[in-house]
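This section describes the prediction task in plain terms. A model, or a person checking by hand, is given the sequence of a single protein chain and must write out its three-dimensional structure as a string of tokens. No templates, partner chains or ligands are provided. The sample shown here is typical of the held-out split.
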Amino acid sequence: MVILLVAGAGAYLYYENRRNVDVGVFLSSSPSDTCGLQNYTEVWDGFNNTPGATIDWEFEFLNANTTGPCTPTNLTTNTTGFSISDVTWNQTSVPASPAPFDSNDPEDGIGEVSFALATPGSSWSGNVYLIFN
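The expected answer:
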């Protein structure tokens, strides 16, 4: 009886873990140097959710452009199975024009990016890459 219970619990945990979408971290890049991010990478903690879910997500985000305002026009991902929609910067749909980063006041260059993230339809584990344009 004990062996049957242990085997059943093990099978249940194995099945449940295979149905998860486990994002370790979000990594950012900007090949077009949007907001001065070509040589700067943001990293945010990930999450655990079920396959096929769409979740609302947001991050504080640094405008690393020291020469003037940055104008994000899009946020995408090249991570297979994920898609991004409804992108806003400081509650304004992109494109937006956040204030320029002021090296004398680091808080002046902090903004908030929010978006809807659709997860893959089956179990998945890894990091998600965000591309700012």
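For orientation: The first strand starts at residue 21 and ends at 29.
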